[in-house]
């Protein structure tokens, strides 16, 4: 049976109140530090309580996690900023949410495609890209279970996407489909309970990986430990 993609749009009335958050990322290239200004919903509660969210949850267990700036997004942004990458490298950010990892990739001169299954998340990612001076990028509504034909990239980025066990196999199948020969997926995770299941599934489905331990320390907030995975096909 053909799986139909699930796409959602958080209604505008749930997104009226926004706040700006400043994120600082150090870059190896040029030995510089860059500030990114992100717009995000003031509170996720308004999204959680909206009838459209209840309906989407009933259809596909949807939750508006995209509206938070998660520690894993900061970890991934910092990790990729510490590498020197080919200019104009094509990048797909999966589950982009507010788009921080894609913004870092844009600052590195990459050709970025922001993707998410909530159209509102894509709108926020695009707003944040323009807010930080970037005009050349693309957005793509994407359900991991139904990747579009012909989409191939040398680099895929994903932050905090294995929070549920049901995400693991579709995500790995997406890697198999969209990663070009020799391509890599960089994925960050705050060491959630399903991490070992994820590692086993990667190996079983023909991928190898290395792991970079990360520690995120921010003023007046708890220290968060996590891992950035660099994943590639073994064949």
Keywords:
single chain, 235 residues, alpha/beta, Rossmann fold, seven-stranded mixed beta sheet, two-stranded antiparallel sheet, 29% helix
Provide an overview of this structure.
The protein is an alpha/beta fold and 235 residues long. The protein has one domain: 3-Layer(aba) Sandwich (Rossmann fold). The protein is 29% helix and 31% strand. The protein has seven helices and nine strands, in the order ββαααβαβαββαβαββ. It has helices at 45-48, 51-60, 71-81, 100-107, 119-131, 168-178, 195-204; strands spanning 18-27, 32-41, 90-94, 111-116, 138-141, 153-159, 179-189, 207-216, 224-233. The strands form two sheets. The protein has a seven-stranded mixed sheet with strand order 5-4-3-6-7-9-8, sandwiched between helices. Strands 1-2 form a two-stranded antiparallel ribbon. Helix 3 packs parallel to helix 4.
Question: Mind telling me the C-alpha Rg?
Answer: 17 Å
Poorly predicted spans: none
Q: If you consult CATH, what is the topology? A: Rossmann fold
Strand content is: 25-35%
CATH superfamily (homologous) name: Vaccinia Virus protein VP39
* Termini separation: 29 Å
Secondary structure tally, helices: 7
Assembly category? single chain
CATH class: Alpha Beta
- What global shape is seen? globular
Number of domains: 1
Secondary structural class: alpha/beta
Mean pLDDT: 93
So, CATH architecture?
Answer: 3-Layer(aba) Sandwich
Order of helices and strands: EEHHHEHEHEEHEHEE
How many E-type strands? 9
Strand order of the largest sheet: 5-4-3-6-7-9-8
Percent range for helical residues? 25-40%
- The biggest beta sheet, please? 7 strands, mixed
